[in-house]
What we know:
7-stranded mixed beta sheet; 27% strand; disordered N terminus; elongated; 4-stranded antiparallel beta sheet; 410 residues; alpha/beta
Amino acid sequence: xxxxxxxxxxxxxxxxxxxxxxxxxxxxxxxxxxxxxxxxxxxxxxxxxxxxxxxxxxxxxxxxxxxxxxxxxxxxxxxxxxxxxxxxxxxxxxxxxxxxxxxxxxxxxxxxxxxxxxxxxxxxxxxxxxxxxxxxxxxxxxxxxxxxxxxxxxxxxxxxxxxxxxxxxxxxxxxxxxxxxxxxxxxxxxxxxxxxxxxxxxxxxxxxxxxxxxxxxxxxxxxxxxxxxxxxxxxxxxxxxxxxxxxxxxxxxxxxxxxxxxxxxxxxxxxxxxxxxxxxxxxxxxxxxxxxxxxxxxxxxxxxxxxxxxxxxxxxxxxxxxxxxxxxxxxxxxxxxxxxxxxxxxxxxxxxxxxxxxxxxxxxxxxxxxxxxxxxxxxxxxxxxxxxxxxxxxxxxxxxxxxxxxxxxx
Length: 410
């Protein structure tokens, strides 16, 4: 078909083509959308864009259409007919004349996810203002979840993602809300491997402290652990120092510790949802395979790696065997898991809370600091500071409704 044979309506998206923005407001009920377009169909217009939202039972429906051309149809006739239909439906309407389609979005597109518990008007205003300060434009806002936290997503264009992330990281810390900024595009939807730290991330406990409680040295081990997680001690050195205090414990304590482990709220939901969405999920831990192997089996994880407590003649020797999983080791394992899963590193997500997670968080496509120490929050791509691990799903653009649908038993 030559250009001269293409119907006028089919090329009605040029900047110089007359268009009408038809806006409908009022109480929502079935049939409004069909009714509006049935009314418009009588004028042989083409639909260029549609957007509809329902908030607390009130509908806002916007349709960008070509202005009627020929056949006796006129813009005045369309306006009168649409207003008459809206009045019969007890709706309000506004029709605005213009030319062409929407303005092109600016170069540089990002998704800004804001988590609040609660999300206040003050914090929302501040986030929106900082977006504007960077030169960004908010193109769309929608809610991802209303519980256990309020999560909303801003689609932003016209500013650099890294610049936006830096600006909002400072603002979010001052406001007490969590803000994640990721680049828009297909890559966000292609993140297919999630790797988590275990202690104080997947679970609420520090496993070595659970073992230490049975050895009567919990306070001493906890102090060394805290210093290591703050980055004040070399992890491998601190690991050997703490494990040495467990020498002589009966191996039966392993089963007791497994029973004492408490999953972080939302952990099962996070993993189950990711698996049903086609993700692979793994854990890396500075703790011990005696626990992570059990978690792998219980939770259906694809990958798991940790240190191994040496057991000889039914007793813990106070030593670990094999390759040490430390800060560098976690990043190395992330890369190994990604290679085995066939997933580019840029399409991975890492979650952790301690200084020994930093290399892993920075190596991943998206590094999430979960209820982390200040050093980690400042260095990670984004931070989540609410006690629900499944809120990480919102950073991936998954809505609460999609989470619930993915977890509905068939």
